[in-house]
Amino acid sequence: MARLLLLHAFLFQISILFIKIDAVPSSLLNSEYQQIQDLCFGNEIDPDRTAFHFQPSKNWLNDPNGPMYYKGLYHLFYQYNPVGPLWGNITWGHSVSTDLVNWEALDLALDRTDPFDINGCWSGSVTFVSGEPVILYTGIDDKHRNVQNIAFPKNGSDPLLRQWVKPSDYNPIMVPRGDIDPDNFRDPSTGWFGQDGYWRTVVGANMKGRAEILLYKSQNFTNWTKNEFPLHESLSSGMWECPDFFPVSLSSRDGLDPSVNTGNIKHVLKFGLMKTLRDYYLVGTYDEKKDVFIPDEGYEDDYRTWPILDYGHIYASKSFFDGKKNRRILWSWVNESDSEADDIKKGWSGIQTFPRAIWLDADGKQLIQWPIEEIKSLRKGQVQLRDFELQSGARHEITGISTSQADVDVEFELPSLEGAESFDDSFLLDPSKLCDEITPSDKGGIGPFGLLVLTSDVEGLEEHTGIFFKVYKNSDKYMVLMCSHLRSSSRREGVYKPTFGAFVGVDISKDKRISLRTLIDHSVVENFAAGGRTCMTLRVYPKHVLTGQTSGLYVFNLGSLDVNIKELNAWEMARARVNIRNDDFISKDSV
């Protein structure tokens, strides 16, 4: 009864705050609101549920689909099982936001109702055609083939886009013919409009073991013809899926509309590789006359040499051009690493990364990814370190904030690069293996140094997750290895605990500094090294939180040389308003 009275009291206070408020008020992110959400939706007994990452209130989520900005609202569609926390019954979930932080869930956008998608509404994209959004998506038809379909808003004047029409006289608009494997033909990209008056889109396909990004052309966006040649192909890597193709500026961080193909630009081809379940990308040139993508010099048909979008636990990413703020924003699916039994018990599975702005680095070779600026609206208490020396073997705790829900930004400074261990070129092909061989007892030259997150509050830190750097010397240059260790992250049964590794694309000899930004949100940890040049997302399920214990945060240095923390800022993060059941804080004002 006391719990119920407390809930009613809080609800009354919040109802007063809502009066005459049209936008999402900052007051929603106070302690009273957080307590209400916890009481209503069980977060105090579900320590794995995130506080500011996108996830539905329950059930299964995977690929992000068709993100866009339309009539004052951001939309995100996503692969969704409406009846349970395991994969199956795939439809398109749909949520809207005014700020990409707080989200309201709407009814399903696409459901399995027609012969051309009766076995699933799989991934796809949104393209603006004559100012209105149009969906292209993969359906699994009544013959169990992958086919491509089209859907239109029932009412384009509705900013919520609550209803979509899948005309049977159009669908399917693309079917697998000839050498196309009907089981591996999917995920149409956002379309772009060529100077010749034709629309284009690409679809991932398997052609007798050869991966192809098939290109289709149309004058009206409903009748499509496959191009004679693919946009790009690979003979050695297996099926490519979830392709994303977009222009990037060589002179600005601004995003570009997908149809831009003039000026000082390059193009990026992003895809998921089924063989490794990782997202890769290539930077190059798009020849519109030949309709082919030409990777930059140095490209090899060997996936081990391709840049990886995120070296951790993400897949099936999708970007969109945000015309409101002239930027390109990226989402990625982060699946669970615990057991199916755990997911059934929780009642949910799968989240999205916090949205990232992406642009091309000044070197024109790699993408930069960085949490969008709106994340700052969630920052609460702050702690700071400046010019703090981390001696060899030192470990220093960061206190003063709740560190299971935090934004941490640290810059390490190296007094010298002398003493760096020797580099072997073979390291480049499998940096994760190299990371796996590094143990806390190793006293290397420069590193390992970095962060320990989600640590148990016991002597010896029985549970901890390490994100760290190590510097190597390669003839006339230095190489920075980034690692994450999950082997000690959890004592729970049935948790997948891999080691991830990557070499960071940065010249540390210039100023002898390397930065690390880390978003900690209960069971997910997103890491951005060197200003976002290398990213590594982790799933972490510490056992100590199940008994109500708090988690710790440390900086550490296990190398033989001292390391200086030039500056560290850490913020406790408020809880965002994400897809709460029966919460209509946006739609109530959009009749």
UniProtKB/TrEMBL annotation:
<dbReference type="InterPro" id="IPR013320">
    <property type="entry name" value="ConA-like_dom_sf"/>
</dbReference>
<dbReference type="GO" id="GO:0005975">
    <property type="term" value="P:carbohydrate metabolic process"/>
</dbReference>
<keyword id="KW-0326">Glycosidase</keyword>
<dbReference type="InterPro" id="IPR013189">
    <property type="entry name" value="Glyco_hydro_32_C"/>
</dbReference>
<dbReference type="InterPro" id="IPR018053">
    <property type="entry name" value="Glyco_hydro_32_AS"/>
</dbReference>
<feature type="domain" description="Glycosyl hydrolase family 32 C-terminal">
    <location>
        <begin position="374"/>
        <end position="572"/>
    </location>
</feature>
<keyword id="KW-0325">Glycoprotein</keyword>
<keyword id="KW-0378">Hydrolase</keyword>
<dbReference type="InterPro" id="IPR023296">
    <property type="entry name" value="Glyco_hydro_beta-prop_sf"/>
</dbReference>
<dbReference type="GO" id="GO:0004553">
    <property type="term" value="F:hydrolase activity, hydrolyzing O-glycosyl compounds"/>
</dbReference>
<feature type="domain" description="Glycosyl hydrolase family 32 N-terminal">
    <location>
        <begin position="53"/>
        <end position="371"/>
    </location>
</feature>
<dbReference type="Pfam" id="PF00251">
    <property type="entry name" value="Glyco_hydro_32N"/>
</dbReference>
<feature type="signal peptide">
    <location>
        <begin position="1"/>
        <end position="23"/>
    </location>
</feature>
<keyword id="KW-0732">Signal</keyword>
<comment type="similarity">
    <text>Belongs to the glycosyl hydrolase 32 family.</text>
</comment>
<dbReference type="Pfam" id="PF08244">
    <property type="entry name" value="Glyco_hydro_32C"/>
</dbReference>
<dbReference type="InterPro" id="IPR001362">
    <property type="entry name" value="Glyco_hydro_32"/>
</dbReference>
<protein>
    <submittedName>
        <fullName>Uncharacterized protein</fullName>
    </submittedName>
</protein>
<dbReference type="InterPro" id="IPR013148">
    <property type="entry name" value="Glyco_hydro_32_N"/>
</dbReference>
<dbReference type="InterPro" id="IPR050551">
    <property type="entry name" value="Fructan_Metab_Enzymes"/>
</dbReference>
